[in-house]
Amino acid sequence: MLYAISDIHLSYPGNRDEWEKLKPHPDDGLILCGEDLAFSVAKSNFKEVWWCPGNHELYSMPLKTATRGEVKYKGCVEIARRHGVHTPEDPFVRWDQVIVAPIFTLYDYSFRPSHLTSTAAAISWAEETDTVAADEALLFPDPHPSREAWCTSLVASTATKLESTIAASPDTPLILVNHWPLRQDLVFIPRIPRFSIWCGTILTEDWHTRFNAAVVISGHLHVPRTDWRDGFRFEEVSLGYPREWNEVKDAGKDVNDLLRVIWPGPERPQEPFATQWRRWG
Fold first, then answer.
1. Selection from 258, 114, 240, 122 nearest residue 189 by Cα
2. Which GO terms describe its molecular function (predicted)?
């Protein structure tokens, strides 16, 4: 079996205590969409572990973190490698009948209404509802001039790697794994809808068809769900902050019940495809 979970936010004691309850899966794999503090527990319980970074891992905290941007990211990659965890910088690995492809694309503020023609306009639009991501103060793009420029560079290099992968194994589908959603129409955050500008890039809208995806996995939104687009399955696998899943604990479940089964996954449902809201499993 191949499982996935994201946004486990181990800086919160409640989540950290829950993560320690992870049960052994000696023959299974686990995908982490953003959480570099989880490696030791994950590797001690799963045969293989894959990771891609989220925005929180890339934060450079005042007085605590000297590294920024690409250097900060590369430091996270080295930590993962020391634990034997697969990263976006490593060769993609085959698992059963699929290739697991963790990627890192960041965002470029393009998940916005069409009348907003610049990043500055998009940020001002979000600020109108008191919505500002902490990324604006803590996530630096060095050495790139902007987050948008870093995103453009990441998208180009990742596309090249994915193209090479499917050229070498044209009959093997990929499990695409990214912290940020690959499609704008999958961003559903009704409490803070204008946060969408920090949620991805339109440059990846067609990657599920372009790169022969078996499944596309993401986190970031803290809205766990299963969706289908063009007949392809998309899984949002966030755990979230403790307050966001208290009802799960109240139901007598723990983090093991929140691991999403990715492969083999569910049968493709009959059309029309409806969103499946997932609280656990």
1. 240
2. hydrolase activity
Is residue 54 within 8 Å of 66, Cβ to Cβ? no
Count of helices and strands (H, E) across the chain: 8, 11
**What stretches of the chain adopt beta strand conformation (E)?**
2-6, 25-33, 46-52, 93-95, 98-102, 174-177, 213-218, 225-229, 232-236, 260-263, 276-277
The 10s digit of each residue's pLDDT in 214-267 is 999 999 999 999 999 999 999 999 999 999 998 888 999 999 999 999 999 988
Distances (CA, A) of 238 to 6, 9, 188, 206, 241: 5, 10, 13, 22, 9
Identify whether the C-beta of residue 126 lies closer than 8 Å to the C-beta of residue 73: no
Question: Coil, strand, or helix at residue 16?
Answer: helix
Q: b/e string for 182-192 if b means 16 or more Cβ within 10 A?
A: bbbebbeeeee
Give the predicted TM-score (pTM) of the model. Answer: 0.95
